[in-house]
């Protein structure tokens, strides 16, 4: 039996044929979700963005669908810190992860990168333009790598 997230993903994919890629945003702050959505809509080729506020739902999505990038906050209701990165990495081993979090310590940054994050951006320090640029770079890199394999 398929869950609602799998159907939502299928519907979104059907409606987004000309996107740069598929991004899973794991973020529990609705204001941040809206800011990120608006920032990505300003790109030449906006990616398909699916968001969920909980890690458990994100893991279900990753089990049912393929994403080109995961954008991850480290302070979620049901998961936090580098354990969140490790959980996403285990569920989607080949998918790049960008951490975009308000949590900012050198140790946490280092742990997240060791656990498999490709980038670590701090909310409030990096602008939305820098976040948008990082996402586009990862998606272009992901697309280029996939084309090399064909």
Mind sketching the topology for me?
Blueprint lengths: L3 H12 L6 E5 L3 H12 L6 E5 L2 H10 L4 E4 L9 H10 L5 E5 L4 H9 L4 E4 L5 H22 L1
Parallel strand pairs: 1-2, 1-3, 3-4, 4-5
Helix pairs in contact: 2-6, 3-4, 4-5
What distinguishing features does this structure have?
150 residues, alpha/beta, Rossmann fold, five-stranded parallel sheet, 5 strands, globular, disordered C terminus
Provide a brief overview of the structure:
With 150 residues, the chain is of the alpha/beta class.
Question: Can you walk through the features of this model?
Answer:
The protein has 150 residues and is α/β, with parallel strands linked by helices. The protein has one domain: Rossmann fold (3-Layer(aba) Sandwich), CATH 3.40.50. The chain is built from six helices and five strands; from the N terminus they run αβαβαβαβαβα. It has helices at residues 4-15, 30-41, 55-64, 82-91, 106-114, 128-149, and strands at 22-26, 48-52, 69-72, 97-101, 119-122. Helix 5 (106-114) links the parallel strand 4 (97-101) and strand 5. Helix 2 crosses helix 6, helix 3 packs parallel to helix 4 (82-91) and helix 4 (82-91) runs parallel beside helix 5. The radius of gyration is 14 Å and the shape is globular. The model is unreliable at 144-150 (pLDDT under 50).
């Amino acid at each position: 039996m398929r869950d609602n997230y799998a159907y939502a993903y299928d519907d979104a994919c059907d409606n987004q044929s000309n996107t740069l890629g598929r991004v899973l945003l794991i973020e529990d702050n609705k204001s941040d979700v809206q800011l990120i959505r608006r920032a990505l809509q300003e790109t030449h080729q906006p990616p398909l963005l699916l968001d969920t506020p909980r890690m458990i739902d994100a893991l279900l999505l990753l089990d049912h669908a393929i994403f080109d990038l995961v954008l991850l906050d480290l302070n979620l209701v049901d998961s936090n810190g580098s354990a969140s990165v490790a959980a996403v990495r285990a569920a989607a081993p080949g998918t790049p992860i960008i951490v975009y979090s308000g949590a900012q310590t050198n140790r946490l940054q280092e742990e997240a990168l060791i656990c498999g994050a490709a980038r670590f951006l701090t909310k409030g320090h990096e602008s939305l333009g820098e976040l948008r640029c990082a996402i586009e770079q990862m998606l272009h890199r992901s697309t280029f790598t996939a084309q090399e394999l064909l």
